[in-house]
Amino acid sequence: MQPIAFDMHVPFLGTVPVGWYGLLTLSGVLAALVVARAEVRRVGILTPRQATDAVMITALASLVCGHLTFLLTPAGGTAGIRAGSVLFGAIFGGAATVAGLALYHRVRPAELLDAAAPAGVLPPLLGRLGCFMAGCCYGTPTGSAIGVTFTDPAAPAPRGIPLHPTQLYEAAFLLALFLLLQWRRRRRAFPGELALLYVGVYSIGRFVLEFLRGDEIRGFVAGGRLSLSQAVALASLAVTAPLYAILRARVAGRPA
């Protein structure tokens, strides 16, 4: 694994290195565009052109919010905004953008959030593969056969030590989440269900995976017992789980 995928010659700028993280995240945005356009065409809430614009605007907002949230971590205060990104910040920033775009297009926010939810999983899914190639977001040391050893000096992961491939764990988890949302989209019980499932299920998975993360760049709370991401995951669950239960109960109690 190595952070740089290839070098590209750009007029007036010279040779510019293209990193795996950026390349794979961009691939995730393009995949999200395909999925989102198909979904809005199916439900008939936006035109394909409007869907394309919405995906690009949301991707940009997610990128900015993810980097801005990084500034709230201990490392962000010293390394600067370009040194990292926080996925929870990107998710919440993207969701707020989708809701705002729904109001702009006079569409119910819950409907557009549901249409965007499966597509929204794809950029972080492929982005985690980019993290694996770049050697960031690495795991704790392990003696098991699944341990991965990083050797590239440019990778931030400790070199020469077998580590849990937490990037691949999360990518696999996000793939399962994508398949769940794709399965539920024709079976949703109420508007907004897919969006709540996205945030709630991701929060559960991220909370568990954080125990295997070895990088301390994310920051810690509660006297170091929980990472900042785990605290955000718990807060997200405190909101999404009761709301999901209430809305499901309301639908179940609706007269036939």
Write the layout of secondary structure elements.
Elements: E1 4-10, E2 14-19, H1 20-43, H2 48-70, H3 74-79, H4 87-104, H5 109-134, H6 166-184, H7 193-209, E3 220-221, E4 226-227, H8 228-252
Antiparallel strand pairs: 1-2, 3-4
Question: Mind explaining what this structure looks like?
Answer:
This protein is mainly alpha-helical and 256 residues long. It has 8 helices and 4 strands; from the N terminus they run ββαααααααββα. The chain has helices at 20-43, 48-70, 74-79, 87-104, 109-134, 166-184, 193-209, 228-252, and strands at residues 4-10, 14-19, 220-221, 226-227. A two-stranded antiparallel ribbon has the order 1-2. Strand 3 (220-221) and strand 4 form a beta hairpin. Helix 2 (48-70) runs antiparallel to helix 4. The longest helix is centred in the middle third of the chain and has 26 residues, at 109-134. The termini are far apart. The mean pLDDT is 89.
